[in-house]
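Appendix C reproduces, verbatim, an entry submitted by the partner laboratory led by Prof. M.T., so that reviewers can inspect both the input and the predicted structure.
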Amino acid sequence: FELVYSVAFYYLLIFYLRPVLVLLGLPNEFPLTPYRINYDAMGYITLGFIFFIVGYNHILSASYAARVPNPLKSEWNISHARFVFGLLFAAGLLIKSFRVLSGAYTSGSEPVLFFHSFFAGIAGFFDWFGYIALAIAFISYFQLKKNNDVRYKLWRVRAWGTFAIEIAYAIPSCVRASVIIPIALYLIIRFFLVKIDYKMIIFWGLGIALILFPLGNICRHPQIAGMYNISPALTQGGILQGTTPSLQEKVARAASFTMYFIVESFISRIDQSNVITGIIEHPQPLLYGKPLLKFFTSLGPPRFLWENKPIITSNGNEFGHQIGVLASNNMNT
């Protein structure tokens, strides 16, 4: 989980997975996201990855990094953990209740007035308190168990109880990230304080890709499943028109539909190579750094202190339509 490896893996995943699978024979005409490889786009993507690797390993990078002061000099004090955990856990429950009662719980349900309001800033700020409480609980649990301190049993209950609450709250919201973050926190903390278990990484990774992403797709857009009633794998497989399919053919059709939907639910969500392709194929007017200025401005005080703080994603949907990567009826992405 060292940052350079995590960033490199994520870069390869979002930019190279789909093109590589298409080259290996994966169908590229999905119902929702037809795709073709643009080699100019892949050239820019590869150039960016090369610059990342060269920059990370350059002697100047190490020199500058060594000059950055490290403010994290205090040691973990388990005697303070219970109080801090309780405070953050309570704040997390409070903001969860606020989201449910205000109608801003499920994905895409945030009213416009809420999203731009003072309360949206509070909600966005305190959303992380539950995750921090979860991290404190797991760190305390694993650290105490490592030191053979019997208090680990109590912290085990707190850690897994908080984990269960976060997952139970996240699943009905249809927000995949809210499910992924608790899992990622558990894995990172466990591997740093206990040991690295690659089988566990693969297990959770496959679970997220093959279960969470498809269910999240159906949860947010139930009508999507209806677009997969005809699979190219079956239309090319010889099921004749005007004939009644056999049980074996029905099972094959259902299996093909399921795998087809699972594959696109994951790949279409994480793939970003189509965004680079859209930018190249649909050039937009130069903005001369205005989006970057807006981004850095957004790093200022939280919205509950600055009500009119710029929203960096406010024109993302419009831009997606301009470069042709979003369907005309998609007004939420």
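The radius of gyration is 23 Å. Additional entries are available on request from the coordinating office.
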